[in-house]
Amino acid sequence: MTTPAVLATHETRSRLHELTVIDVRAPGEYAGGHLPGALNIPLDHIRRALPDIRQAADRGEVLIVCASGARSENACRVLAEHNITTATLSGGTSAWAADGHDLHRPQGAARATWGMERQVRLAAGTVVLLGLLLGLLVHPAFQLLSAGIAAGLVFSALTNTCGMAAMLAKLPHNRTGAADLDATLAALRGR
Known about the structure:
This protein is α/β, with parallel strands linked by helices.
């Protein structure tokens, strides 16, 4: 198993023309802005795309990106388990934008979906408040909802994974259609 290289935004910008960039965020997040030339293969579809990513890696360096770097690290780990060498962008598209680099948006894209981190914060906060409110008004046992979310957040921080994000990624606005993924994989093969 190989350890992925980590590229800073200035390194990535100077080498962008020679990299195959794969964005592993949900399609709605990708539509909200991505690195120029990036292809969207959501993290939950990485295993399906393994043969095409392997071919791309055989032709040149593959850069995996997400919003902050956590999902791209997970994707790089999966790819490394299959002996596919990749790199990841330090800080993800957030760092790219913060350093003043442009993000591209698909033409005719609908309203941008919130980033996954923002969706998780909204869902977690809502469930915590609901648990506290129901605990006060209905029965104290409902406070266990809030405790469960707190435990999940601690576990998420310790393991650098997020079960809630995985669940939210399955919502319709965060999912890619099979035809979209097939088109992306065809574009990847054509590079």
